């Protein structure tokens, strides 16, 4: 049983600061500007010996239309429904606001237990607000300072109490279910079995199986789940793509550009293979970024890209591989990540042949260092070819993890040198003696070379391209290092 705690409250009361303190990392963006958090973010939290799941939510707004604020409110309401405990946070320095009273009434109407926290209680400034918090009718408030961690023991007592109560209720419920099993009538049982068999048969024929996805563990090889970062310019459909994959309105979407701010990681599974999907904020040119929060979002996206294993660069079919797209692609390759080009909104594209030719031409001219980058066309809104995209992601992930035998590599090197020997700048012959794969992810090779400083970069690129073609490693960055071999006679005295 996973105990889940949701943090709610009006904007700018310190919810994200509290989230970061409980997870022990700076995952959520924090700024003095209200409304920084939009999507709900989940993380594994700990407080002394308590381990639980925590959800950071957007500020509760009194909006009930189709606006962005209303969509944020619905995400918060969903987090409250899914939680075992809700921590409502107020700003003790400001005191109780009318909107705090409004949402305290809303929370009281629900079934989820509530704990009231008066944040920013360090010093005497928050004492008056702490006393006002009693008027909300949510019990005794917890005096706390998310910035400094003051009041952690009081918060621990509250969480521990509710966690123990939830475990006891779960245990008694299981005992009751086991002691009084309900058996359906034979005819009903037969119909239920037929319905279940038909449902399983239908799910096997579905293009996108709707399995019940659970948490994931390490795959047994020490690598864990595949981390897939979804990146691209603003408003190309990144969040819509993830929502369609997991078949849930988990992330905020809409016509407004730049809705996503935090890099949100979602645990998922595709055909028995564990995944961690990371939705990121859209990346614009640095020269166009002036807002402080957008700068923080861009930094968070770059951080997510660096920690990913495969990166899906989502493009708009109406404007593929523009200058900013190529900048993002080069960053992915420079970081040694595997790259998949995903052309979204393909169903609205009028001249498909011309768009695909443009993609191939731009990749060939602007990214010649990595040949064979896979390109997949999809429609995130309609769910077209999403399974093909994920199959491509896992295929290139396998290439990114490839391990080549040393004997085969040295046979390849010997044959290649015989046909195309390295140049001899200044009349000095360069010897390539030995090659080995130093590591994977990305594939990295070391060649023992007599004069590595004199070997032209063009010959190194020739080696990389031939190695990629010979061993079938398209689309992933390769690293090739020339290492000068040790002189076996160095340091030995000359005999008379």
From TrEMBL:
TM segment ranges: none
Location of the EngA-type G domain: 3-167, 226-401
Biased composition (Basic and acidic residues): 170-181
Biased segments, Acidic residues type: 200-219
InterPro entries documented for this protein: G_ENGA (IPR031166), GTP-bd (IPR006073), GTPase_Der (IPR016484), KH_dom-like (IPR032859), KH_dom-like_a/b (IPR015946), P-loop_NTPase (IPR027417), Small_GTP-bd (IPR005225)
Gene Ontology BP terms: ribosome biogenesis
CDD domains (UniProt xref): EngA1, EngA2
One example GO MF annotation: GTP binding
Binding site for GTP 1: 9-16, 56-60, 119-122
Annotated stretches, region: Disordered: 170-219
Residues that, per the record, bind GTP 2: 232-239, 279-283, 344-347
Keywords: GTP-binding, Nucleotide-binding, Repeat, Ribosome biogenesis
Alphabetized SUPFAM superfamilies for the sequence: P-loop containing nucleoside triphosphate hydrolases
Family designation: Belongs to the TRAFAC class TrmE-Era-EngA-EngB-Septin-like GTPase superfamily. EngA (Der) GTPase family.
Subunit structure: Associates with the 50S ribosomal subunit.
Physiological role: GTPase that plays an essential role in the late steps of ribosome biogenesis.
Listed PANTHER family: GTPASE DER
Protein name: GTPase Der
